[in-house]
Write a structure and sequence with these properties.
single chain; binds ligand C2E; binds magnesium ion; Alpha-Beta Plaits; two-stranded antiparallel sheet; TIM Barrel
Amino acid sequence: MLLVEEQGDPAALTEIARKLLAAVSELRKIDGHELNVTLSIGICTYPADGRDSRALLAGADIAMYRAKDRGRNRFCFYSAELQSHTPETLALEAGLRHGLERGEFRVYYQPKIDMRTGSITGVEALLRWQHPEKGLLLPEKFIQLAEETGLIIPIGLWTLREVCERSKAWKDAGLPRMPIAVNLSASQFREEQLVPQLAEILKSTGTDSDILELEITESMVMRDPDEAVKLMRNLRAMGVRLTIDDFGTGYSSLGYLKLFPINNLKVDRSFVRDLPHSRDDVAITRAVIAMAHSLEMNVIAEGVELREQLDVLRKEGCDEFQGYLCRPPLAEEDLIRFIRDGGTRGTLN
Ligand code: C2E
Ligand code: MG
Ligand code: MG
């Protein structure tokens, strides 16, 4: 972290960033080892981009991730990010703010199926935005913007509360006990208030904590693995279960993976897609399943669309799956019908 005082001029900050990049790129040899060191710099200025340290750090962080996304070894200004937003994005951002107040968000639920028995083991909650003009929007249309604007925090809390309330309602309606997985965003995972806020939501909705599963990604935990391990232990101590989502797309250190108190590992859709024809993907899937099992994690495959994909995954010992082969994410009433009708009724065995 670098604090540059009394220097808000973008040209001067650009100059400093350039010097840092150049200085680091010269670190070629350390202790005789050839190294290739690069920086990704996110720049946030006071007061234009934020008025307190929290806002400034969050802005710098967003800008840094943008620099990484653009290929690393570069810098990005937070403010330039927002300025580059098109009028459409700005309108969407305003809509996002109001959407929460107006109750426009919806949670859809995708069933997770046990590979052996074909019975439903739980659901994943997936957020939708019922936009007044654009119709039902998928997360790809708004999650990133919610993340950039910080709105993901209140939206994420709304989702957690909604899911807990629905879970309670299902229990009262006599439905079988059903764990619900909720995706966490990177900023929620970094937010210090996560554990107390979650505890409050569980308590005020009267939800058993083991009903709730949180899905996090490798990049979220690998950003600061030691901190992440502490947070994950705190969450586990509350009774909440944890899943690593999109596994295989990030850069997990295997050394750390064994320290993570994770219950489930989700094999990313990109490895499932070309099964069974891609020999590489069969090999990767096999290795991931073996590794997860030896670390005593349950393995879930996501994005299963074809019977033949299911067959390979089952043969390789995968525990559960999700995908269009069974059901897409469903509105609550459709999910309830699916459960009441007996799930897949063994048709996928
Ligand atoms: P994810 O958590 O990896 O969710 C799986 C995505 O795969 C979902 O997309 C789901 O609809 C889709 N999917 C399920 N089965 C299949 C299949 O058989 N084939 C294909 N091609 N796709 C399938 P969705 O709902 O659009 O969500 C996309 C991403 O948005 C999620 O990826 C998750 O990262 C994020 N997201 C969703 N809900 C939330 C939320 O409440 N909070 C946060 N922070 N992120 C969320
Ligand atoms: Mg997920
Ligand atoms: Mg996923």
